[in-house]
Amino acid sequence: xxxxxxxxxxxxxxxxxxxxxxxxxxxxxxxxxxxxxxxxxxxxxxxxxxxxxxxxxxxxxxxxxxxxxxxxxxxxxxxxxxxxxxxxxxxxxxxxxxxxxxxxxxxxxxxxxxxxxxxxxxxxxxxxxxxxxxxxxxxxxxxxxxxxxxxxxxxxxxxxxxxxxxxxxxxxxxxxxxxxxxxxxxxxxxxxxxxxxxxxxxxxxxxxxxxxxxxxxxxxxxxxxxxxxxxxxxxxxxxxxxxxxxxxxxxxxxxxxxxxxxxxxxxxxxxxxxxxxxxxxxxxxxxxxxxxxxxxxxxxxxx
Length: 303
Hints:
Elements: E1 2-8, E2 13-18, H1 21-26, E3 32-39, H2 46-62, E4 67-69, H3 82-86, H4 95-107, E5 110-112, E6 116-119, E7 126-133, E8 139-144, E9 150-153, E10 158-161, E11 171-177, E12 180-184, H5 193-201, E13 206-211, H6 215-233, E14 236-241, E15 243-245, E16 251-253, E17 256-259, E18 265-269, E19 274-281, H7 282-291
Parallel strand pairs: 2-11, 3-4, 4-5, 12-13, 13-14
Antiparallel strand pairs: 1-2, 3-19, 5-7, 6-7, 7-8, 9-10, 11-12, 14-17, 15-16, 17-18
C-alpha cells in the first residue's frame, strides 16, 4: 500500500491510498452495500465509551453494515480540553487504536474511527485524527482535522477554541475502499466546500464525516450543510454525530444521517445513542453524475 501525491497546494496536499489488492480479495465494488453511522453521547471515561461503541458496532453489524462510521470524540468527551492531551496516543499504538483494529477484524468490517487524540508536534496539543481500518483490522488511512472550531456563540454563552489544544492537519485524504473512493473529513470541515472539491478532483464518491456539532449550530445549519455537500458533489455522505447531553455540560445536536447523491436523507437519528443504516448504490453515483453533469460544467477552481 502506497500513498500517491495526487495534487498539491502551498498549505495542503491531497493524498490517496490505493489498495488495489482488495479488488483481488473481494472483487469489484459491491453494487449495493449497507453502511452505518453510529451516534453517541460520549463522556469522560474512555472505558465506558468503548463499551458503548462496541455495543453499537455490533448492532450495526447485525443490521448488515459492512462500513461503520463512529462520531468525533467517540472515545472521550472530557470534562476539560486538557483531558484529551493527557489521553493522547502515539500513532500506531494505544488502547483506543487497539480497540478499533480489534473491532474491525472481529466483525470483518471497514471501520472509520471517528476522531481520537494522537501525539502532535507540540507537547501540549493533539492531532484530532480520523483513522480507517479495513476488514482485517489494518489501518489503511489517517486524516488529521484541518479546520479548527474557534468560535464564540453569543446566544448561548458558549466559547470553543480548539486551536489551544489541537494542532491542525495539512493533508486532504481520499482512500479506496469496497464502498467507493472515500473522502475523510471531521465536523467543522463541513463548512469549507473547497475541501470536498479537492477530494472530488481525485474521484471521491463517499464522504464520511464524524462530528460533534453544537446544538445551536446544528439546529441552524447541520441538515442544510450535509445535504449540500452531497448535492454539489453528487456523492453519498455518511455523517455520524454526537447527540445529546454530556457530563461536561455540553449539548450536541445529533441527527446523524446518510444522504444520497441527490440530497435525499436515506436515514437519520435525532437524539441519543443509536445506529443509522442505509444501502449505498455506487451505480446511483454514476447515474447521477451522468444524467446531471454539473461536475463537468465547473468553470472556476478552488485554489
